[in-house]
Amino acid sequence: MTPVQQLLERRGLVTGFLTFITLFLIIDPLMDYLSGEGSLHITIEFLMALVTLTALLTLLADMHQGRASRRRLEAALQDAQGDLVRWRAEAQELLAGLGQAIDRQFQRWGLSPAERDVGILLLKGLSHKEVAEIRRTSERTVRQQAREIYRKADVGGRAELSAWFLEDLLLPDSAQAHRQTSAPEGEAAGWAGS
Predict the structure, then answer these.
(1) Which band of pLDDT confidence, cut at 50, 70 and 90, is reported for residue 185?
(2) pTM value?
(3) Domain boundary among 83, 110, 129
(4) Residue pair 122/131 in contact by the 8 Å Cβ criterion
(5) Which residue, of 17, 48, 83, is where some domain finishes?
(6) Most buried one in 10, 35, 45, 78, CB count within 10 A?
(7) Host H or E run for residue 57
(8) Is there a single domain that holds both residue 117 and residue 153?
(9) Which string of DSSP letters, residue by residue, matches 91-150?
(10) Which helix (H) or strand (E) holds 56?
(11) Does residue 120 share a domain with residue 163?
């Protein structure tokens, strides 16, 4: 049983108990009045009934507000979950497109399959040592492949390689203009078409 269900069950028990006491405290002064009991005794019992009735009504109002609040929160949670599903789907679609665009650019640069793998792992931010462990090769081999990637891409290193792709993502309008004026004609047209 969830904590919310436990709380509602406890509130239900308290409400039932207060209802019983309230009914008893209302009926008892009436019975006392009919039997001719003293007015002070009847007044005290009536005041107790009034206090209990107030507590019962307050509890019922609180329970009603709690249910309404829970319904609003559940609706907001459903909306947020729907948004999350949509966002994930859009992100997956964009990432797939980005992956394809990166792969096309790697092909344009003439990277070997091993260099493509290393390039992707470097773009993900892995160190040469981590790339070597994943690819089950030496760190020296990974460094050589990385240098070859940078040479073929005509970039100075990992930061420039990442910037080559991120520049177009972060600032699409100005990056495209910059890429078209600074890159060789085939590269600018190829990347812009991705």
Answers:
(1) very low
(2) 0.48
(3) 83
(4) yes
(5) 83
(6) 45
(7) helix 39-109
(8) yes
(9) HHHHHHHHHHHHHHHHHHHT--HHHHHHHHHHHTT--HHHHHHHHTS-HHHHHHHHHHHH
(10) helix 39-109
(11) yes
